[in-house]
Amino acid sequence: MLLNMKQMLKTAQENHFAVGAYNVSNAELLRSAIEQCEADNAPGIIAVHPTEMAYAKDDFFAYVLQRIKNSKVPFVLHLDHGDTIKNVARAIHNGFSSVMIDGSLASWEENVALTKKTVAMCHLVDVSVEGELGTIGQTGNHIKEHLQNGIYTQPTDAQKFVEETGVDTLAIGIGTAHGIYPSDVTPKIRIDILKDIMAVVANPLVLHGGSSNPDEQIEEAVKTGISKVNISSDYKYAFFAKARTILAEEEGWDPNNLFPECIAAAKRVVHHKNQLFGALDKAPLYIDVEPWRRTLL
Fold first, then answer.
1. I need a surface site. Which of 77, 144, 187, 231 has the fewest CB within 10 A?
2. What are the residue numbers of the active site?
């Protein structure tokens, strides 16, 4: 069943759990996320970064939509970190039910203007919009690279941003980073800032950079009020670590021999995340929610 993000996170927020957003760029990663969410009877979000969308090509998303619409559990198809109106328009063209517009690295005025323009366009066709305020740090792909500190979201700014832009959900900076943390970095999620933001913002809140954080910190953030957690590196790492092992130990070139164990490894991570987010067996909560259909102009 296909929903937009507003539908998905309203139920999560009311029932105090979070929905995992899993980035995909090919059929194997898509299977890992969808099949495990179905096995867990858990709602899920299929997230696609603009670079992933460019790699997968538009036709791929016709298959993604058909797979989601025919699923027994609810899913959202979501543009992750869209940075231009062109990216947003492409996502809408491809049938995405939700988009993120990320102007967090721009000035306040530019971020508000870009987000507001995106909201005006997307709400015409009932596509939900996620904005970002504050920034998420970067760890990079290599263990020698160090965490670059993000900017914490200020509660009063969050309140003003939501009011001025009309976003449906808000990604906040509370101490996480994208990627796998270097061994000499200990992440710390600022639950105090999360609580302060929740005191003035009613919209569902989103945690980016959910991979590689201590489970107890993620669990506390969800219990406090985070409604969506983005996961990419953790389950992709498991997938490709298994692929490297198989390719190093065995001759062969058939995808049907290589990928099943990789998918199984990624599924174990997805299951762990769904459990951590309190999302197991939450799909029945959506039984009375009407499937999302894009409004036609």
1. 144
2. 80
